Structure formats: structure tokens, C-alpha cells
Amino acid sequence: MSPLEPSRPRRQRRWRLVRVTLAFLVLTAIIAVAALPWALNTQRARVWLLARANRVLAPGKLEVASFRFSWFGPTEMTGFAIRDPQGDRVVAAPRALWDRDLGRILFDRPRYGTLTLEGATLDVERLPDGSIDLYEALRPILTGTPATDLTILIARGTLRLRGSGLARPVSADAADLAIRRPPAPRPVSWRLKLAQTDGAMLDVQGRYDRWRTKDLDVHLSGKRWPLAVAITGLNASGRFDGRAEVAHRSGRWELSGEAKLLEPEAAGPRLRDQRLGLEQLTGIWDVAVVEGSWAVRRLDLDLAGDAGAASRALAAWTGIGPLASAGRWSARVQARDDGEGLRFQGQAEARDIPEADGPITLDFHGAYRAEEDRCDLDRLTLAAKEATLTASGRVEDLRGRRRLDLSGTLTPDWEVINTRLADRIEPDARVLGKPGRFALQGNLADGARMLTAEVGFELDGADVYGLRLGPTAIIAHHQQGDWIIDPIRSTLNGGRLALDPELIHEDEGRLILRLASGSAIEDAEVNDEVSHRVLSFVAPVLEEATRVRGRVSVKIDRAEFPLAEDAGRRAVVEGLVVFRDVAFAPGPLAADLLDLLGRGDATLKLDEPVVLSVADGRVYQRDLEVPVGRLARIGLEGWVDFDRNLHLTASVPLLPEMLRDRPVLSVLFEGQRIAVPIRGTLSHPRVDRDAFRASLRALGEDLLTRGAVRGAAELLQRLARPRDPAAAPSRPRLMPEERRQR
Predict the structure, then answer these.
(1) Rounded to whole angstroms, what are the CA distances from 329 to 142, 348, 363, 408?
(2) 3-state DSSP of 510-532
(3) Dist CA 19 CA 334 (whole Å)
(4) Counting Cβ atoms within 10 Å, is residue 286 exposed (0-12), middle (13-18) or buried (19+)?
(5) What DSSP element (H or E) covers 140?
(6) Can you tell me the mean pLDDT for 717-726?
(7) Which DSSP string do the residues of 457-477 spell out, in sequence order?
(8) Residue 633: what pLDDT?
(9) Three-state DSSP class for 62?
(10) Can you state the percent helix, strand and coil of the chain, rounding each to 5?
(11) CA pair distance 42, 48, nearest whole angstrom
(12) Which helix (H) or strand (E) holds 296?
């Protein structure tokens, strides 16, 4: 043994110390490693971990109330929340489970496994710029390091979607979300399943290739899922039922699908707070968009709704109408791209309209030329039972003023019109004419009220109730929101007809046909039919009169006729009817009145003006007098309603021939008149003879009483008067025998 060589015991002690030191270090390391989860679970470690995480999520933020790390199990977190860049909480979960133990967290990055949020609440907002705050909060994770591999699951959660473009928040009672963020170059994918307690469901699946082509695919399928969107001045809502796909490939957007929009509603200032009247919309579409240009491979739309609500909404927008108070409407529109433009065609029908006798149909064909920014209407046909309107034209500058220019023809169906006249007015009513011109021009951007329109037709003649109208044109113009009808000049029963009609649009949306003051009929011939059908309302004594001859003139001071049935508004007419030498043989009413007078005149004559007043569904009589003989006249006051009911009072004169057998009474009754009520109808008048007799008896008693009092007073006055000395002496009284001898 060398003296310099350490002794064996010493060497053994050294190795023992090394072994002890190593054992201590290993034990310390084991203890440290074993205690690491506990250390990371402390408050100080939580703050440190969140600070590091928030540097990655910035400008968003992560919040965790507590961590629970383990070397042998998944990591648990409580009070988990993510805030968007604006500080709003977009995700909140009472418990989060990360399927990574501490070892894999430390040594298996960037494979981060699956993060499951149990019972999470999603509060998602669409910002005014169109971005979604949930995506903005997760963007650093979804678009970060290419090698990152992470899956986020939300199970049994809830969702609320709100913000710009939504009329009201959309909520889901059950929400399941899976976001798969694989390492490059694989695309990000996601699936969101939503459900409500009423059975509504929505399933959204998507895939986004963020690394290579930037392609996007989104697939939606829904069952009665509620939608509510807000556009400037318009709120629309409904329930989505069907499927839809959105794809972006190589700079080309593609949209396709087949779905129904159930229970659609639309209202707002743009519709003047009226319902749109749309109840169902079904669509099939396949559309591509390339650099702002649309290529419609297929577009089929089927629509149906309430015609009354749609008419009121259209009236609020255009200021015309409403044209229908109730009913149903349906429409179908189809469009295809033929290489030169978008060809389209459509049909629409309105039925069960109270104001129309039968369905109203619309058929149109045309093409949209994108390069010329123009829409050509090759044919537009609007058909009702009474008439058909055909037109063609175009709309130019679709991105600007939208200049409209349509022209065509209005063709009345005279056979149908005459059949209706025969059914509703009289069997012999006839109208004949020719088609007229239709034109519509203006800028749609200025609103429908500013469009210029012309529509009309030519009448060859008409014969209704014995009134024969000569040839004339009926033409209406629309200018600056008002309808103007050309003056009507023609003949009527050999006389002159001059009408100046106006269409007045009232604030309540009602259309009123008004005849301007000065409108008149001059020297029209009258006959039995005219007197029975028309003039009997003005002069009831003409009802069922025969051998009627003469002429009549009408001067209008005021005349207004509502063009739609409205309980709050009825026809009003004021003016003067002038009879000229209208002679007639009495009808039932005239005969009854003559019978009261004890006369049987074979012919009567009207030759006086009568005040014309029509209001509240009645024709009022005033200043109507029927000459009887040379001096006497029967006056009539009251009204006749449009159902031909009578409410009249006749002022009957007492004529001497009524009291031929009582000459003394005839002198007393001279100049007296009796009021006689008349009820019933024009065809069956009821003259109240009992009232006539009672009035006659009362008048007689009154006159006799006044006559007797007057006679007694004169007798007493004579007896009290002193005898005149110059008077001849009175004869002596005779004895009875002398009187008998005489």
C-alpha cells in the first residue's frame, strides 16, 4: 500500500457520503415532483398560470377560480370563464375537465388533448362590424402555432345569441359544441347542436382550411328553429325548417339548400307597422357568387299568406288601397342562369277576396341582365274575372334610381261584365267597348306614389235601367300620388252628359270617387223604366207609373262615392233635379193619394225642381210637389232608402169636390191641408188612411167649433144693436091661424 493512497475505510466513508447525498437529492426531487401539483394548486401559482395563459389569449382573458393538477389523472378547474376583448363573459362553466395529467402538460406539448366544459353557458354577441365575440376570444388558440392540437367540448350547456342584426336574442335550452383544432395542415372543424324545450333543433357543422386554400364549408339543418333579424326599418322573424350549405372555395362563394320559413312575420317603419301577410316561404336554391357577380343555377320559391294583411302593407307602402280586406294569396317564382343573364318566371294568385268575384292571377316572364344593370319584363299579365291587363317593359339602373317603364293593354271582358250586370242590376243591362292603353313610368327609388301611370278603356255604349250612354273614353292618370280621371263627355238618353270625376285618397287609406261641382245631365229623356228604376227614388210618385214622357236635368253640387265597402263612409249626393214636362199615368202611390182627394186623374205632370240629397243610404225628398188639377198640389217630404223602404209624409190639400154633398163645409175647409204618413216600400206603399180620417175629423170639429162661436157672437151683436129710426117698420107678428092660412 502506498503511503499516499487513502485508506480503505476512508474511501468507504466517502462513497457512503456520496450515496447518502444522491439518495437525499433523489428523495428531495421525488418529494418536489410529488409536491408540484400541490404547489400549482395554490393561489400564487393560479395567478402565475393565468398570467401566462392570458398572454396567449390576449386581448381576450381566461378566468379560473381553482386548479387541481395531478400526475395520474386529468386536470380539473372550477369557476372557468373566457372573456372577449371587450371584457364580456362569453363562456362560463362551473367545472372544466382537461384530459391531460401534469406530465403530459409539461412534456407532450403542443398536443393539448381535450378540454370539456360541463354545463357551460354561452353568451354570444354579434358585433356591429359583423364579427362574433366568441370567435374573437378564441382566435389566438384557433390560429396560433401550427403544431397545436386541441379539442374543446361543451356538454349540456345553454346558449344565448344577441347583437347587431338580430331583432331579439335567440336562446337554446340545450347546447353541445365541439371544436377540433388539429395540427397543420388539417382544417379546423366544429359542430354545434342546439335544442329548445318546444322541440326546435338546429345542427351547425363546419370546416375551415386555414393553412392552404382558405376553403370554408358550413352545413346547417334545422327543425322549426326560430330566427329574428333586424334590417333598417324592418324586423323579420320566422322558423327555419330544412337544410342550407355555405361554401367558399378558390375565391368562389356557393350557397345551396332546401328549406321552409314557417310562421314568417315582418313589420316596422318601412311597412308603416303593418304585417307583411306572408305565412309560409319554401325555397330551393343553388347560387354561386364570384367577384360580386351572382350565378343562379337554380332558385325556386313558393310563398303563401294572408291577402288582407298583404294588401294593407302594400297600401301603407304605396298609398293606394287597401284593395283586399281578406282572402288568401300564393305565388311561385323560378329563376335560372342561361349564360346571358338570369331568366325568371313566376305566377301568383289571390283568392277568396270579398272585393273580387273570383280569383286574381299574375303571370310574368323576364330576364335580368347584370352587365347592363337592367331587368327586362317580356310579359306581365294581370287577370281578373272582369278584365285582363297585359304589359311589357324594363327596369333600368337597378343599383340606382331603378327606372321603370311598362306599357300594355287593358282588356275588359264585356261578356263577364254584362253577365254580372244582368245578375246584380237588371237582365237587360249591357255595356260594350274596346281595350284601352296602360302605361307605368317612374323611378322606383322615389316610392310608388311618385310613379306616373295611365289606364283606361273605350266605351262604345251602355244601356242600364233604360239609361242609354253614348260612346266615351274612361281614362285615369296617376301623378305625384294622386289619381286624375279625364272629364267624361257623352250623351245620355238623348241629353248631354258632363261629368268631372276625381279620385280622392283619404288619410285612412280609403279611395273616394268624387264628382266635381258643376257635373250635370241636361235634358235626358225619361221613360217608364227610367222612372221606375232611377227617378222613383227622387220622386216616389213615379214608381210603376206608365206612359212616362218628358225630360229631366240633374245638377250636381256635391257627390262622393266610396270605392270600397266601409261602414264608416257612405255615398253622399247633393244637387238639384229639374223635371221638365214629365207627364205620367199614376202608379200605386200616386193613385192612393188621388183617391184620398176623390180624384181619378188619368195623367199627372211634374214640372218643378226637386232638391236632391243622398246620405246615410237614403234619398231625401224636399220641395217635391205633384200638381193636382189647376191649383192644388200634393207635397211630399221624407226619404226612400236604397232598399226601397218609404218614410214619407204627404201634405194633402182639401179640395171642394171632396165635400160636394156638404157645400157649407167645403167653404170652411177651403185652403186647409192634412199631413198623411206613408210607409211600406216603393212597390207596396201604405198610405195611412186612418190618420187621414182622424186628421180630417179633428180639423172639421175645430172648424165647426170656431164657426159656431163666430156665428153666435154675430147674432148677439145684432140683437144688442139699437134700431135705426130710418129703417122700415117691421111686419106685425101673425097669429097661428093666419100663418096656417098662408
Answers:
(1) 49, 7, 14, 25
(2) CEEEEECCCCEEEEEECCHHHHH
(3) 90
(4) middle
(5) helix 133-142
(6) 50
(7) EEEEEEEETTEEE--EEEEEE
(8) 85
(9) strand
(10) 20, 50, 30
(11) 10
(12) strand 293-306
Short-list 402, 404, 365, CA closest to 381 = 365
Please give the sequence-ordered ranges of beta strands (E in DSSP) within 488-571, or none if there are none.
Answer: 488-492, 495-499, 501-505, 511-515, 520-525, 546-562
Interatomic CA distance for residues 418 and 678, integer angstroms: 36
Alpha carbon distance 537, 549 (integer Å): 17
364's CB contacts (< 8 A; 6+ apart) are 345, 346, 377, 379, 380, 381
C-alpha cell at 248: 367558399
pLDDT score at 142: 80
Burial of 705 (0-12, 13-18, 19+ CB in 10 A): exposed
Q: At residue 376, what is the residue type?
A: D
Q: Which residues pair with 247 in a beta bridge?
A: 217, 254
Distance (Å, whole) CA 518 – CA 114: 90
> pLDDT band at residue 116, thresholds of 50, 70 and 90?
very high
Question: What are φ and ψ of residue 371, in 5° steps?
Answer: -65, -40
User: What is the pLDDT averaged over residues 487-512?
Assistant: 85
Q: Which residues of 431-456 are buried (b: 16+ CB within 10 A; e: fewer)?
A: bebebbebebebbeeeebbebebbbb
Neighbours of 97 (CB within 10 A): 19
Q: In 3D, which of 511, 501, 514, 560 has the Cα closest to residue 318?
A: 511
**Residue 45 phi, psi dihedral angles, 5° rounding:** -65, -35
**H or E segment at 43?**
helix 43-57
Residues in the chain: 742
CA distance linking residue 135 with residue 128, whole number of Å:
15
Distance CA 644, CA 440 (A): 43
Cα-based distances in Å from 413 to 383, 416, 460, 709:
10, 6, 14, 78
- The model carries a pTM of 0.68
- From the number of C-beta atoms within 10 Å of its C-beta (0-12, 13-18, 19+), residue 494 rates as exposed
Q: pLDDT class for 173, splitting at 50, 70, 90? A: very high
Do residues 89 and 117 lie in contact, with contact meaning Cβ atoms separated by under 8 Å? no
3-state secondary structure labels for all residues of 183-246: CCCCCEEEEEEEECCCCCEEEEEEEECCCCCCCEEEEEEEEEEEEEEEECCEEEEEEEEEEEEE
Q: pLDDT category, 349, cuts 50, 70, 90?
A: very high
Name the residue among 49, 44, 42 with its Cα closest to residue 63.
49
Checking phi first, is residue 726 left (phi over 0); if not, alpha (psi -120 to 50) or beta? Answer: alpha
Q: Are 498 and 516 in contact (CB under 8 A)?
A: no
173-211: buried (b, 16+ CB within 10 Å) or exposed (e) per residue?
eebbbbbbbeeeeebbbbebebbbeeebbbbbbbbbbbe
Q: Distance between CA 168 and CA 206 in Å, rounded?
A: 25
Provide the pLDDT confidence category of residue 1 given band limits of 50, 70 and 90: very low
Give the residues across from 469 on adjacent strands: 462, 492
Query: Which cell numbers in the block locate residue 185?
Result: 395542415
Pairing of strands 436-443, 188-195: unpaired
**How confident is the model over 179-200, as pLDDT tens digits?**
999 998 899 999 999 999 999 9
